[in-house]
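Supplementary Data S3. Sequence and structure tokens for construct A.
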Amino acid sequence: MSARRLGFGGQVRAVWRKELTDALRDRRSLMSALIVPLIMPLMIAVMFSTLASTLSDDQPIETPVAGREHAPNLMAWLEERGVVVRDPPADPEAAVRAGDVDLVLVIDEEYGEHFRSVRPAVVRIVHDSSRTASRRTIGRVRTLLRAYGSQVAVLRLMARGVSPEVVQAVRVDDLDLATPAQSAARFFAMLPMFLIMVAFIGGMNVAIDATAGERERQSLEPLLVNPMSRPALTAGKWITTCLFGLVATVLTLLMFVLLMRFVPLEDLDVQLSLGARQLLLMSAAVAPLVLLASALQMFVATFARSFKEAQTYVSLLVFVPIIPSTVLQFYPLQPTGWMMLVPALSHHLLLVDVMGGEPITALSLAASATATTLLAVLLLALTSRLLQQEKIVFGRA
């Protein structure tokens, strides 16, 4: 059947099949749609696994102590709590500077005398605060020493017939109303930002290849010679781009849920529960943004003379939608109705609500999807008009 006899829908399908075949043969397009969804969740999983192992209190602390004979009770108390007391280096300060040890405890010679006379007994922590890797160990040791000091102070008050509650003028009791899902959503606040980035990255190479790439290969002009409307041509290319973006986004979500099963979230005191319903809602929330991203990338790439030039322009667009997510990390805003009409911002808020187990209304979802889709349609119309200009088709723009 010739293109002249095809209706608008048939023309769109013909272009879509052609573009899909070309995209599947292009390694760059496949890598952006498949590799990125694997890398980002893997980065999150590795980061939180490392954090969990760092925050775990099960690992013993090996601490060199100089002058431990001056504080036998303190040494016994620390050993009961998992601290392995080691012999100190000859030069504690030089050993810490060289990175041979994280810290060295130095017990003052007058520790015992001051302790017995109820005066502050000095314990010096020799450490290097510029070494990030040792901060956790230093913090744990400092916390243990403070706990020991508090325990001794309580025993001294009780020995003198004074209630320890005398020194506690105000007691603060926390009542946290956040649900486990809300706490997990706050902990994984970067996931919505990553999903928004993938929505722009997944179909980026397809959008560039279908516009600037076609013109660089000089295959756009023969394609336009066919009796096919410009809107149908634009729509067929756009659908292919959207397909790759949606696949990348869904794969990112699935890989995130899969990899989180291997992360010891209990060590982070986080409970993440994303079932099939939450995954569907998150996919539905971010899907309109994929439509907008594909249309915007095609519109911008149409102006470029070559694939590399278009890649430069379109790559910069990736940073635009993550601006609202970044701002919300530092300046939390109370969600209001008008925010559902702002692309990227509305999608971020919807994703956070779904992850936190908050109910999202159909009106909010519809408002976000409608505003984003209308903007995508406008960009498609502008792209279609550009393809009617000779300076665009023949690379004179």
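Construct B, processed identically:
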Amino acid sequence: MSQPRTLGELRVSRDAARVSVRDEMRRNLLRKLQAREPVFPGIVGYDDSVIPQIVNAVLSKHNMILLGLRGQAKSRILRSLTSLLDPAVPVVAGCEINDHPLEPICRRCRDLIAQMVDATPVAWLAPEARYVEKLATPDVTIADIIGDVDPIRAARGGFDLASELTMHYGLLPRAHRGIFALNELPDLAGRIQVGLFNILQEGDVQIKGYPVRLPIDVAMVFTANPEDYTARGKIITPLKDRIGSEVRTHYPVTLEHGVAITAQEAWTNRAPRLHVPRWVREVVEGVAFAARRDKKVDRRSGVSQRLPISALENAVSNAERRALVAGETEVVPRVSDIYASLPSLTGKFELEYEGELVGAENVARELIREAVGEVFSTYLGSADLKQVVRFFEEGGTLRIREGSPSAEVLAQLRKVPEVLENLVALGIEPGAPAPLVAAAGEFLLEGLWAQKKIGRSDDRGFVAPERRADVEIDLERLERLRRLKKQVN
């Protein structure tokens, strides 16, 4: 059955009933929950924490605010709320604020319906058209959010300035019967935040210069970074008090969640024969996890999930470039490609004073090495690699350049006893493509270096482990001797 196109057709259809936006979202959410459908498809890692709180807020018909550091999918969640709206709702055709044909609130629609009655044209809005988003900045004005007098409209229409028909509606009235999202709320000037009181508490707005009230029907959602409360601004207490639910977001709790998010968001589906090994994905994700706990990185600023996404894309691009130069059809990123992605890492975190002394690139290299060591322990922690270590301790060296073709890397790896045999732990079977074997072999050597079992030099490649002295100092034994001496004294 086709949708009604006039007010008369709408009156006799089953689409005539009108519900508020929050009732509509609640109804559709209940339907999803009963059908066991995913509430927010594509949002990974929040199933047991953030999503249940958002569900409770929607079921309670609350306005809400998402608090979290950068790169925690706050904006994505807000945009996903449109999935809780009806597929289409009727509006008066041409209305700036999406008036319902049976309950118009603006002067233009009331006059039109009084003139055309049942012949009033009706249009239908999709969920995406009912979502209005604004990034809060210090220069935002009340006119931007609420509205103001439009002298040009008054002059062109021949209206008196006191007429409601001269109003220019702001973003909030234009979100009528939809969702209004305001990102980075603390950046909004305090006097502008005051202008949001009425809509949150009373459900209406007052256009500047007019005594008229508009009973706006809107679901309001906000985002904020908790660290911005004092860094750039704050949410004034009366406004915060009027927001029904405060939901805190977080970074991925497990490496599995992080890998899944990065795999979903990173642009890696670009070459017909591209293979990104699992251990490469875990190393890239491990860099973000290491950065979030490193004392040289400012934890208050956070380390965005965009870091591993950008790093993986850069690593794949470096592998793609190498394959083209070497004439290889298989594209397989290596650990050296992650080191080549430093430009996508250094701009994604803020450094503490100690980190500034070391330098962003050096910090990033340390993070990659730490991540390689952790992933190496997972895959090869129980492998017997004594023969490999002995090769280097006896003076053997192995130089693998970042741009070395796979055949050249394999020729180098065959010099080291038992390297290729131990790659089975990485899922490398006999007859595997050369680029994949080369990437696995390099990962094994990088892991031994990360755990300080072998050394590495920019000039000579992989070498014997570095020794600070001929005899290593046993710090634990030294500490025991100090305690014993203290007890004797």
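DSSP finds 22 helices and 13 strands in the chain. The longest strand covers residues 218-224.
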